[in-house]
Amino acid sequence: MRIIDSHTAGEPTRTILEGGPDLGSGPLQDRARRLEQAHGDFCKAVLLEPRGHDAIVGALLVPPSTPDCITGVIYFNPAGNLGMCGHATIGLAITLAHMGRIQPGLHRIETPVGIVSVTLHSMNEACVVNVESYRYRKDVRVMVDGLGPITGDIAWGGNWFFLTKDSPLPLEARHIAELTRLSTQIRTALIEQGITGKDGCEIDHIELTGPAKDPANHGRNFVLCPGGAYDRSPCGTGTSAKIACLAEDGQLAPGTLWQQESIIDSLYQLRYEPGKNGGIIPTITGKAYVTAEATLLFNPDDPYKNGIC
Ligand code: PYC
Fold first, then answer.
1. Least CB-packed of 3, 105, 225, 307 within 10 Å?
2. pTM score
3. How far is the CA of 88 from the centre of ligand 1 (A)?
4. Helix (H, G, I), strand (E, B) or coil at 26
């Protein structure tokens, strides 16, 4: 199986160029569902140790159903599929440029939650116009064991997020283990208390937000991803959800720059335009670098050929 690895603002993406499972034909959403339901072993084998680790997001290239898209893509992590993925879309664009498959300019990419477009600025920088993002519920209180009540907004940015107003702990890299533990407790409490996104969708990403460390920036976050790893990047879909909340509160005007820091100090630049359905259309700009070109081998005799789960 041929792969190319990259990282976007520190967050890894593994693009699978060939050798993935046969998902049949039809709408991309259906093929994505088949990947999740019937090929969990494949996803874990590609991402987890001993070939990888739990922070990697997989980007499986598939034929698009819409002819003007350069590719279809299904993003997944060890816990299942992602709807959209900001960092992985920037990583994918840089990977395709590295392979000589795309040139600077605008390209459309089909994801299971809609078509996004990506503009390749250079060999290491791209911007993504994300799917329409919106706040679903404001000031939702969840009781968390040992922490008490935590208030946050529920918003969609291509995935579902619970965004706290403040972080219970300073957003500093030395607190990553504790931030991971707290965010996991919040996610568990949301599930136990039946607090969901629209149509009962599970809120699988927790975003602790706070003020920027560098006064040149506008916000900082810690994002817990569904597999239990934290996002090294400022999380493209998570920051889309964040600026959707700011827009609704009248705190960020269309076209205004929002510079978002991650927990490891990496950066994205975002702006938005109003969407057609009352939400916003975010544009996320970031940098990515290719880190490896490889062929993954799966020896049938290897007891860990499906990953260490
Ligand atoms: O950048 O959207 C993102 C993302 C989601 C999960 C990991 N990264």
1. 105
2. 0.97
3. 7
4. coil
Rounded to an integer, what distance in angstroms lies between the CA atom of residue 252 and that of residue 241? Answer: 13
Nearest alpha-carbon partner for 152 in 195, 188, 115 = 195
- Which H or E element spans position 245? helix 236-248
Query: What ligand 1 atom has the least distance to the C-alpha of 225?
Result: 6
Q: What is the pLDDT of residues 12-71, one digit of tens each?
A: 999 999 999 999 999 999 999 999 999 999 999 999 999 999 999 999 999 999 999 999
| Type of residue found at 55 | A
Q: Which residues are catalytic?
A: 85, 235
Neighbours of 12 (CB within 10 A): 24
Amino acid at 168: P
Cα of 232 vs its chain's centroid, Å: 11
Tokens of 53: 């680790």
Q: How far apart are CA 22 and CA 37, in angstroms?
A: 13
CB 227 within 8 A of CB 180: no
Which residue(s) pair with 141 in the sheet? 151
194-212 residue pLDDT tens: 999 999 999 999 999 999 9
With a 6 Å cutoff on the Cβ, whether 51 touches ligand 1 is no
**pLDDT single digits (tens) 116-171:** 999 999 999 999 999 999 999 999 999 999 889 999 999 999 999 999 988 889 99
* Assigned token pair, 23: 């998902």
